[in-house]
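Run log // design_07
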């Protein structure tokens, strides 16, 4: 399972439930209002 490196509490909860978690740096996606499950960019015209 992927999770954001900026969410250590979420990672800990998932690992406590026996899931294998990989924390990734998605700070650029987060800046653009995206996320791990569906990175997206909003275009404003």
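design_07 sequence
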């Amino acid at each position: 399972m992927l999770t954001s490196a900026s969410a250590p509490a979420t990672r800990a909860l998932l690992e406590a439930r026996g899931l294998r978690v990989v924390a990734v740096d998605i700070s650029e996606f987060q800046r653009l209002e995206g996320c791990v499950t569906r990175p997206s960019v909003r275009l404003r015209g």
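The first helix runs from residue 8 to 16.
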